[in-house]
């Protein structure tokens, strides 16, 4: 078993639509554990740090506006191969192209308002968990 930890953000659109429970249920039914969880709002500074590789790109200001627009749920999910497992549960970034049965495939019709963020690698997971929850 390759135990991993990953950051999951249940984005403001999912919170607004009442999908927190649905997302958590899918993670837990898959066998992942929620180690920490917090309802909070992303501020500009955290957005710039979390999305550092996107700052300055043409779409970033709209992304930042969306991500700072309301409360979100930040959580650490843990389990066997948690990083690829959560990314598979989330589905393709563009909800219009995501497969049915995934979170985005079942509930999103957008590339940006796509309900969930999941770390894409062990390095990203460590960096993002440290950003959101401290070392």
What does this structure look like?
The chain has 135 residues and is of the alpha+beta class. The chain has a single domain (3-133), classed as Nucleoside diphosphate kinase-like domain (Alpha-Beta Plaits). The chain is built from 7 helices and 4 strands; from the N terminus they run βααβααβααβα. The protein has a 4-stranded antiparallel β-sheet, with helices on both faces. The longest helix has 12 residues, at 122-133. The chain is globular, with a radius of gyration of 14 Å. It starts with a strand and ends with a helix. The mean pLDDT is 96.
Mean pLDDT: 96
Spatial order of the strands forming the largest sheet? 2-3-1-4
The separation of the N and C termini measures: 24 Å
What class do helices, strands and sheet pairing give?
A: alpha+beta
Q: What's the alpha carbon Rg, rounded to whole Å?
A: 14 Å
Strand content: 15-25%
Number of domains: 1
Low-pLDDT regions: none
Full CATH superfamily name:
Nucleoside diphosphate kinase-like domain
Number of strands: 4
- State the CATH class: Alpha Beta
CATH architecture call: 2-Layer Sandwich
CATH topology: Alpha-Beta Plaits
Helix content: 40-55%
For the biggest sheet, the summary is:
4 strands, antiparallel
Which series of helices and strands comes N to C? Answer: EHHEHHEHHEH
The number of helical runs is 7
Shape: globular
